[in-house]
Every structure is written in C-alpha cells, then in structure tokens.
Amino acid sequence: MRIAARVNGLAWSGEVEPRLLLSDFLRSEVGLTGTHVGCEHGVCGACTVQLDGEPVRACLMFAVQVDGREVTTVEGLAEAQPGEAITVEDLHPVQRALHEAHGLQCGFCTPGILMTAEAFLRDNPTPSREEIREAVSGHLCRCTGYHNIVEGVARAAELLAADGPAAHDDDDR
Amino acid sequence: MKPPPFDYVAAATVDEALEALADTSVETRPLAGGQSLVPMLNFRLAVPERLVDLNGIDELSRIEETEDGGLRLGAMVRHRQLEHDPFIARRMPLLSEATPFIAHPQIRSRGTVGGSVAHADPAAELPAVLLTLGARVRIARRSLGGEPGSRVERTVGLGEFFLGPFFSALEPDELLTAIEMPPSAPGEGTAFDEVARRRGDYALAGVAARVRLNSGGVCDEAAISLVNGGATPCLMREAARTLVGQEPTPEVIEATAAACAATSEPAADMHASEAYRRHLIQVLTRRVVSRAADRVLT
So what's the pLDDT on residue B4? Predict the structure, then answer.
C-alpha cells in the first residue's frame, strides 16, 4: 500500500505492507534506529514516538495508519547546524536535562521517555514530582531506579522555562 | 512478534466499514485504537484475514447530548478525550475519575471507548464504569439484501452485552457505533478506585459505584460494578440492593461491601489469590460507596 507521511518534518512516501508496524517502519524503511523496540506489545514504552504531537506506542500502530500524518522520533529533537555533527549544545532541553540529571544509564529506554516527556511538558510546563511520575509511568527502565528520570524531567521543565516558550518551536532549540 | 499478513481497508464512513464487515466470507475485524488488538496480532493470538480501520471515520469521534439529556460517546472517542474533556468532567465525573487508571498516557492517546467495550475484557476499567452508569450500546450492520448504505441498528443494554471473557453480543458483521448513558439524576454521587501492583497495570480488583440519595438522605438507587471480579464486567445487583431504602451509614456500607465480596467471583492467578481479590473487593467497595455518598451531600 502506498503511503505519504512526514517524519521529523521531512516527507516520506513509498510502498509498505499493511502488517508493517510503525516501529519497524521507522527503523527499517526510514532508517531511524533511535526508536527502540523492546516488548512489542505496548508495555515497555521504549518505542514511544509522537503522532501529530501526541505520544503513542509505535509497536501498536501500523505504518499504513500514519498516511497523511506527522511522526516525530527522538531524531527530531536535537537540531545540528547544517553539515555538522550534533554537539551537547544542540541537544533539546529535555535531552540536556536527562543528561545533566544522570537520568539514563544504558539508554535503551531513553528515546521513548524523551518523546513522552517532551509532549508532557508542552501540556504541563510546571508539573509536580507526582505528575511527572504519572507521566513517565508507561516506561520501563531496568537501570536507573527511575529517581533520576523524574529529576531529569523536572530539570527539563526548568530549562524549557528558562529558554522561554518561543524557543521551543524555533531554531534556537 | 510480527503480525500475520492481512488485507487492510481504511474506512472513511460507517457505511464503508459496515460494507466490509457484511462480507463474512472473509474473516474481518474492526481496528479501533488497536491497543488490545495489535498486541494480540503481534503475539498471533488473533489472525484475521482483513482489518477495517475505523480511525478515519470522523462521525464516530463525537461526544454529544442525547434526546433525553444523557450522553452519547462515539465508538472512536479516545480515552484521552474522556480524561481531559471539561464537559465530561461536569456531566459524568465518574468517567473523568476512572480514565486515568486505564494503562498509560501513550495508550490513552490511542485507546477508544468502543474498542474497550467491544473487547469485553473483565479486567478493563471502562466496561465496569459504564455498567454503573446504566449505559447502552448502539450497534449497526448492513441490512441483509438491502441496498449498499442501508443499515439495521439495534440497542443493547450493557448488562446484556457481556456474555463471557472477551465475548460479547456483537455479531461478526456488526459494528459498535456508540455508547449512550442516561442523564445523571439530582442527588447522585459516583466514585471509582482500584488496586494494581504498579500504576497502569491491570488492576487486581477495582470497583465503581453510583448512589442516589433522596432529600431525607436515604438511598433510593444504587449500582456497583467490578473490575476483575468475575468472568465478565459485572453489575453486583444483590450487593447494591442492600443499600436501597437505607441511609448510607458505616454499618450499612460495611454490609454492602461484605455482600459484594461474597457474591463476586474473582479468579486466582499468578498475581493474586481468589481470597485476596475478595478482600480487595470488600475494602474498595466500602471506600467507593462511602465516597459516592459523600459526594451527594457535598
């Protein structure tokens, strides 16, 4: 089946089999391997991406369902200068915050957490620790014990507030 | 962990979906939010020949008032919509209270009301909550031998809809199109609570309650239903009757909670014994009935 979608702002079109999961589509067809595949039945949260800005499990959707829609993956967060490698300065505030708070160890679960946290902080820019826990409850992390993930999301809220609301959507991020 | 091959139809209207479902020579399943069906496909527990995707049908996403002042939720209304809609919070606060217990935010972005009811999972929150609210299910099929686009519709009370675990009154050529609830009456209070090992997991047990008190503080109507309290999402009619005609004092509520636990039929599994689930049902019933009664008075 032919689909045309936008992935991280870039147009993608081509043929896909109906049974191709969105997670496998992103990794093998689009070549974006930042979206990690963990449990493949909607429990672990590693494959979380944003569909039109809303966090969803990429393993519980089919590629054919994103026809005409916008998908954002972890690769869509940081913005490098044209032709240059991504540096720490290019990282999205949510990425920088998780890094600063030591909110990751092996990093397997991190892309999903970033996509959830980014959407969550857009809806709720000044969350309580309890609200953060609820927001990231759909992610399994076997390394950190979660404490520093919660701290990282709280730190991200501070960084985003310091950057100002406009910085979120323009080239400054 | 990859779904089996299937044919895919993206329906743009209810009639297109009914047209596809009417051809029963091909095993066809409607695809709503996919948060239960897609895991079943990934595990190959379900192997349908064709999926009819309902996600493009705008007319199924409406939340509207019914002729009698009740509420109609289109089958494709997402959990996320229920959770955040101020109209729902005002009109059916039980829905807003219970929705955050359903899985996780990412699942609620996709999961739908109609999908949850049609899936008929005794461990799901929405079927139990909707039972308590006296909901009914709107069902449509293409009329046999009729012109394309001609429909036969029927309405089934939710109490008669659930026939067994993951088994409902829905026929293979039928589509659940909406859930309707009668208006809430003055003097009503509702509450929901559950116990789960981890936030977002399936609950070990959960209880939803609705009570109506008259001006004298006597209960003249009550409904209690259980999550994971039996083979189907179930109304606890006998337990609810112990409240009717009584003032909801702690003693009366305790008797109701005991009756609810005694008449429940929870299963034992690796997560909890039957006795522990009964204990939870008793504690949770006491808690939600008290809370529902308090909400009438305040």
Answer: 96
Reported as a pLDDT band with limits 50, 70 and 90, residue B298 is: low
- Return the pLDDT at A166: 53
Q: Between the CA atoms of B97, B99, B100 and B102, what dihedral angle is there, to the nearest 10 degrees?
A: 140
pLDDT tier, B297 (very low <50, low <70, confident <90, very high otherwise): low
Q: Which residue of A has its CA nearest to B84?
A: A123
Enumerate the residues of chain B whose CB falls inside 8 A of the CB of residue A45.
104, 106
The pLDDT of residue A172 is: 42
- Cβ contact A16:A77 at 8 Å: no
Distances in whole angstroms, Cα of residue A72 to Cα of each of A50, A53, A152:
5, 7, 21
- Phi-psi sector, A31: left (phi>0), alpha (psi -120 to 50), beta: left
The answer to whether residue A59 scores a pLDDT higher than 60 is yes
Amino acid at A127: P
CATH number 3.90.1150.10 given to B58-181: no
**pLDDT above 90 coverage of chain B, percent:** 94
Decide yes or no: CATH 1.10.357.20 for domain B7-53: no
Write out the CATH class of domain B188-297: alpha beta
Tell me the chain A residues in contact with residue B115 when contact means C-beta distances shorter than 8 Å: none
Q: Which of A86-95, A130-139, B178-187 has the least mean pLDDT?
A: A86-95
Closest CA to B226 of B255, B266, B168: B266
Query: Where along chain B do its domains lie?
Result: 7-53, 58-181, 188-297
Tell me the CA distances in angstroms from B62 to A47, A172, B10, B58, B82, one per residue in order.
Answer: 29, 39, 19, 8, 11
Residue showing tokens 């308590």: B132
> For B149-207, how does the pLDDT look when each residue is reduced to its tens digit (9 = 90+)?
789 999 999 999 999 999 999 999 999 999 999 999 899 999 999 999 988 899 999 99
Q: Report yes or no: A46 and A8 within 8 Å, Cβ to Cβ.
A: no
Residue from the list A1, A48, A64 with its beta carbon closest to the beta carbon of B106:
A48
Q: Which of residues 131-170 of A touch B (CB under 8 A)?
A: 133-135, 137-138
Domains of chain A: 2-76 (3.10.20.30), 88-163 (1.10.150.120)
- Residue partners of B268: CB distance under 8 A and separation at least 6: B274, B277
